[in-house]
Amino acid sequence: MKKFGLTILLLAFFSGVSAQSEKIKIAKLQYSGGGDWYANKTALPNLAKFCNEQLGTTIDEENAVVTVGSPELFNYAFVYMTGHGNVVFSPSEAENLRKYLTSGGFLHIDDNYGLNDYIRLEMKKVFPELEFIELPHDHPIYHQKFNFPNGIPKIHEHDNKPAQGFGLIYEGKLVCYFSYESDLGNGWEDQRIHNDPEEVRLKALQMGANLITYIFTEL
């Protein structure tokens, strides 16, 4: 994260001293194309609260939203993207997202069912030279505070497929994590929305906490 200019956020990550001044900011990504980017409305606030309680972080629990092409994108250390349908990045949006990710930002794409085919095409606009690769189960992202020896946990069933975690690696760094057939964000939501068992929600939140920890300790 050094090149990203987020020194204050790095200092704030494990320090309660700055809780009243500088907070780590995370946001949901708003995109064009007609897909429901606004899905999982309670997910990020719940993840932020969980991380603050379990990791001692100082993450802003506000449900922030940022558009792909906005300069405000660079204000967020972690950006979450979800949805069920179509995604379209304009050339300028793709360029802005690339600059964000190659400068130290991190994007988590969470397939809420139906996003896979669209997002793979659009991320080719961002990184035409890269391919998504499935991360091995011994990757550090699965072994932060919470241990997932079998990789990303399965939260919601869709097509009777195993949960998979894919990554885009730029100059040796994981800049984008794509959770597929898992639906982590649904597990982060308020329990009443999907009626998931608490043990399932806990696994989802723990994996989300690993993602947050990873970007500040491994990148």
Automatic annotation (TrEMBL):
Signal peptide (from-to): 1-19
Superkingdom: Bacteria
Pfam families found in the cross-reference section: DUF4159
Domain DUF4159: from-to ranges: 25-216
Gene3D superfamilies: Domain of unknown function DUF4159 (3.40.50.12140)
Swiss-Prot/TrEMBL keywords: Signal
Name recorded for this polypeptide: DUF4159 domain-containing protein
Organism expressing this protein natively: Roseivirga spongicola
